[in-house]
What does this fold into?
Amino acid sequence: MVGFKNRYMIMEVFLDPNRDLGVHDPIIITQFNVAKAVKDSILVNFGECGLASSIGSFQVKYVNPITKLCIIRASREDYQKVWSAITMVRSIGNCPVLISLLDLSGSMRACRNAALKCDEAKFEQYKLVVGDRLTDDINNQMQNCLEKIKILEH
It folds into this structure.
């Protein structure tokens, strides 16, 4: 028996490109926000049939609200539809966003390794931008996010 084949996409969410980098984010990125925005985009661009065919294996596996990194699972048959719908997402809530694909993997292990590298690099970049305003709370939150990636399963 052959297992169900999935694709895992590591996506980066860029919040409103016109805002200042030092200012607090206008929206907190969550799994629910990202999933709703992607499902709405699939519905608008591919209709109800497209949404119904891709919703079976679609899942937002991980979201880091600090580095704005997401891991999204889709079936092997529908990942291109999900990917193109993600590319067409222009807002989450009322906040304008751009979403970019960083990595596409066929296994959770490869995705987990790539996500760890990306998240650690993005957090180092975040630390440089924030500077001395980095609190222990944010540091602990980031460590919790890295632990979540390490324990991700199918």
Remarks:
- The mean pLDDT is 88.
